[in-house]
Amino acid sequence: MHYRLPLLAIFTSLLTFLPARAEDVVLSIEKTMTPPEWALLERSLIEMETEACLEFFDKYFDSRGWLECVERWGGDDGPDDAIENVDDWPLLHAIGASDVILHLYKKAWEGHLRQYTQARTVDVPFARDGMYYKEFPVTFDWVHNGEGLTVFNLQGLSDPQNILFQNRVRRFAGFYLNEDPQAPNYDPEHRIIRSMFNGSRGPLMRPATGLDWAGDPIEVKNRFHPLHGEETYEQMVEHFKDYNDIVGDHPQNLLATSLGLNAYMLKHEPKYRQWVLEYVDAWAERTRANDNIIPTKIGLDGRIGGPDNKWYGSVYGWGFTVVVPQSGALANRNTHYLGLDGFGNALLLTGNQEYVDVWRSMIDTINSHSKVVNGTRMYPHMYGDQGWYGISPQPYSAGALEVYYWSMDRKDLHRVQNHGWISYLEGKNPRFPENALRGDLETLRRKVQAMRADQTTPDTRLADDPMGYNPAIVGNLLHLMLGGLNPGHKAAPLHSRLRYFNPDSRRAGIPEDVAALVDSLTDDSVSVTLVNVNQIESRTLTIQTGAYAEHQCMTVQIGDETPVAVNDTTFTVRLHPGAGARLHITLKRFANQPTMVHPWDRDWALR
Q: Which residue of 8, 63, 187, 454 has the fewest CB atoms within a 10 Å radius of its CB?
């Protein structure tokens, strides 16, 4: 037994010296480029966020990776909020931050699973034996399940070969393929997830109560400051008093398809792909049958509207307007938009633009119900017994950015309003990169100042209290470096035109000292400027087309040079000291089945 670890270490070290890919196209850039302002800002932001994350982790997590807080179940400050404190850390590492970020968020995830498996409720019935079971939420809605799985679902960007990760991906997906008899969440006959509350102990098949949502009684005044503004536990329960109608399917359950997508991207086992497409196709059919509006209530018999025949029903439905207990004001809480990511997952698996058509048609249909009020055109955002309501001068636009990004159809561009990154790509906002990165540095400074001023202690701290100080700020880095979308905090995958890998250290992320700026996206091309800000050492990087190699790179052109044929998912660039250039890459989008496996492991598996 004592020989196994040394032999494994020797084998791993030998792998490090294998060529990245024997057939890889290798391009060399020798022409020097004075480091642009955006490049220096980019590198500074990544490095400073890394330092701040270390300080954040040291303040709020213990040596086991447990969050130092009062552990609670519930929609206000439950387990999902605890792990959300390291949201975006997987993306920060996948962009190119230090490996310490990967180490810390994995430590937080492992600690989180232990902490909330041991945490128990007294009054909430389904969490009395642990808030997590089989390392997964016992049963809750996908607003919260999605938030709590965001870190885990993106771990595959950097660490797909981790055996614990792979086992969990398959187990979690199995909860929705009915592979676990304790978790019959899915009805294959009617192609529904049977309840809005679902998880490792299966669906909750009764109306939910305020207690189910709010968690056990807790002292509030003079001790905690709930982010929803409640001043008493009674207000916390009252916040959820109308959150009852959960039996049956809801579009936010489409977020569960990210589990199936992740499982498929490990080894391309067909059952996961089949389930994702079966479930998404059911929702596409329902949406078309409901005059192009995705319904928010599907009955246990698979019929739109359920027993009350109200397609707009259920908790978090089109007609879900509730009273805010502290103020008496009305709040519209409609989460149908979370279903968008299910269609994006199906697009990743098939490249079929009909999945984008579903959402595009819904946007246009909703906005067709606009009307002029006092000389101003107003657009609805809610629907209830009296018809369309929740009117606003802003057109309904949930998913408009994704529709354009996924289709790259110029006809979809008009729905994307006032978006700085899109304006930059259109040539209308040339200083966007510098301004956005400077803004992120300012945001980082404010977050760190607020963190250092935070006087909460573990017994006066709720799980969501530190979230506002999380130093990982990735949205603009994803736009500018990867030509990608921010997946947000809902367990969605990354959609990006490019990914970077360091072939020397065999890890995801752009190498140290290298900066990247995507300045153009079309249906069949992407342009990116690469620069090595290090003036004395070369840097080598592997570029992958697509977050999960779903796009096929056809050619690469450096500056005005002759394009080089690639016809692969990756190519390698060697940047000499201080060198930089603009690359124009042509590609076929969604030409390949997506994979989490890193380039060198894909090649190794074929040998």
A: 63
